[in-house]
Specification:
Length: 56
Amino acid sequence: MARETITLECTEARKEGKPPSRYVSSRNKKLQTELVEKRKYNRFLRRHTLHREIKT
């Protein structure tokens, strides 16, 4: 299978001293070779923030 599971972590939460929010998503690694970035809701900051793929 070409799909792999990835973890997205908030980039702004650690700067503000809050725990980072994490989401689980998937991507097709044959078509998407670069790291994934999405705007998702962070419940600790109570707003939408940029989440980037982390290495697991």
